[in-house]
Specification:
Layout lengths: L1 H51 L19 H8 L4 E4 L5 E6 L4 E7 L2 E8 L14 H7 L7 E4 L2 E6 L2 H6 E6 L2 E8 L4 E9 H7 L3 E4 L2 E2 L10 H21 L6 E3 L16 H9 L4 H4 L6 E6 L3 E6 L2
Parallel strand pairs: 12-13
Antiparallel strand pairs: 1-2, 2-3, 3-4, 4-9, 5-6, 6-10, 7-8, 8-9, 10-11, 13-14
Helix pairs in contact: 6-7
Organism: Macrococcus brunensis
Protein name: CAP-associated domain-containing protein
InterPro entries: CAP_assoc, CAP_sf
Length: 310
Amino acid sequence: MYNMKKQTEIIMKNIVIKMLLVLAALIGLFLLFYSLGDFNSLEEPEQKNKTEEKQKNSALSSGPGTYVGGSIDDWTEDYGYPERIYQADNKYQHYIYNEKNALYDVRVRDGQIGMIYATGPEADIEPFRINQQAAEIFRGTSIDTEPDVSSEDGDYHFELTEVDLKTQLLVQYDDIYAQVYIDRQTGKVMAARFMTAPLLVQMLPYTAHLNGQPLERTMRIEQSVLQEQNAQQTVVELINMMRANYEIHPLDKIENNAPCQKENSITAYDSAEAVNQWLNQEQREKMLNNHYNSIVAAVSDCYAVSYRKN
């Protein structure tokens, strides 16, 4: 009888011990799960913030970019009236200011400025500088290599290639976009273009997708003779400003009424883009060669130039 009682007590103790062990294990698992969940709840927002939060540049407070989106009257009050005005392809007008050491191409539509391009040794392109090393921009500026732009047509997604970063960098300042033109060989800033989102979307200077679908860039439309003549003049003036940036004498323009031959030409959005392409191609050697004295430009549905020695 005593032995049976003893055995029963032992069995009960074992059962109690097992129950306590199971309970302890359950409590341990609960605490482990809770602590991991609590850790994740702290970690995930931090990771999410790192992913979603993109450093942004402050809105421009000075320089040509501050006029973009505003009235042309504000610009002319400070810079006066242009040397030339001619029609662009996109219902905008070119207001050309060709000064001794600075050139400004202001795009105007219905009295509003949509874009300003500037180059020349004394051109104001703040927050950048002509002949500034582009590497300085990368050190002090937030640059998004895959910017998204919303428009009436939908959402545009741009992708800047390695070549773009070295020749036509894009920087966003609030609702204004700055395209920085760079001489790839020297790494120096040669010009800058400030524009609104609609003009950036219209220009499509980079690989782009609209609502997830790849876009093909549509180039120039047919221009009037007057437009072509003005575009020729702008090409020559821009090339002379590039030469001035490197302290090389200007070229004399030789009048030309013939259309450009496509086998010796390039296609571009406008004169400024054409000149930047030449600057970063083999033609750079001729553009900046001090042995040439004159230039012939041809503009129709393409751009072409040839250099002459007198």
